[in-house]
Amino acid sequence: MRLRGRKGIREEIENQPDLVVLDPAPYRGRWRERFGNDRPIHVELGMGKGKFISEMSVRYPDINFIGIDMYDELIRRAAVKARTAWAPLGVDRPPNLQLVRANIEYLETFFAPGEVERIYLNFSDPWPKKRHAKRRLTHPRFLKKYIEILNDNGEIHFKTDSRDFFEFSLNSFCDMQIQLRNISLDLHRDGVREDLVMTEYETKFAGQGMPIYRLEAVVGEAALRRHREAVQAELAKIRTGRPPAVRPES
């Protein structure tokens, strides 16, 4: 992927140290210091132009969000979107959002074990050729990195428009013996899910009637315990003859 932007992009993002982090390594294990609080940290890997992460930061002000991408131009665009998203609230700098220019290959060098609560993988490059499979962000070699940095409440939320990539990902999660839930083969089949924030790609594809594939992977021990308890509660209701409650996706 090559992005051609106007001159001065690097200078523009360098002039936003309140929002943009160009060297994340010094913050490894210290992201809560950067945010100034101990709230949960949710990370989007490959945030693109930043629509999703910006809107999430507004919708969930009690969560700290980090958007990561490796291209200066995407960081610049995401910064514009972030400030625009918060402007109606009279806020110039999003208080719970940081944009990081970094290569996801080195994820473990800028997040300490257990530092992250949730990872979002939204419309990642599917790398369709088999010889490029190891580059896919749901390949087991990446999943191992995610497991390392996720805490007891850790989850991975994954969306894609590629059926082949989704099938590959299902197998990867299963190979790693990771519990899955809320698997959808057509997320917006019954209409746009207003409870979920959409990305640029998702808005475009859903508008064209294309299926969006989604799943949630439950990684942390506490998250797994809550999931199992919820499943057992639903099974108990079935055994007693009461209709099970419908659990909304998050």
Protein model, in words:
This protein has 250 residues and is α/β, with parallel strands linked by helices. The chain has 8 helices and 8 strands, in the order H-E-H-E-H-E-H-E-E-H-E-H-E-H-E-H. The chain is globular, with a radius of gyration of 19 Å.
Labels describing this entry:
globular; alpha/beta; 34% helix; 250 residues; Rossmann fold; 8 strands; 8-stranded mixed sheet; single chain
CATH architecture: 3-Layer(aba) Sandwich
Count of individual domains: 1
The fourth-level CATH homologous superfamily is Vaccinia Virus protein VP39
Span of the ends, CA to CA:
31 Å
Structural class: alpha/beta
What spatial order of strands do you see in the largest sheet?
Answer: 1-4-3-2-5-6-8-7
Low-confidence stretches: none
Reported by name, the CATH topology is Rossmann fold
SS summary, helix count: 8
Average predicted confidence as pLDDT: 93
Please identify the top-level CATH class: Alpha Beta
Strand-residue proportion: 15-25%
Shape from CA axes?
A: globular
Q: Biggest sheet, in brief?
A: 8 strands, mixed
Order of helices and strands: HEHEHEHEEHEHEHEH
Percent helix, as a range, is 25-40%
Number of strands: 8
Task: Give the helices and strands, then pairings.
Elements: H1 9-14, E1 20-21, H2 31-35, E2 41-45, H3 51-59, E3 64-69, H4 72-86, E4 97-101, E5 116-122, H5 140-149, E6 150-160, H6 163-175, E7 179-184, H7 200-207, E8 213-218, H8 221-239
Parallel strand pairs: 1-4, 2-3, 2-5, 3-4, 5-6
Antiparallel strand pairs: 6-8, 7-8
Helix pairs in contact: 3-4
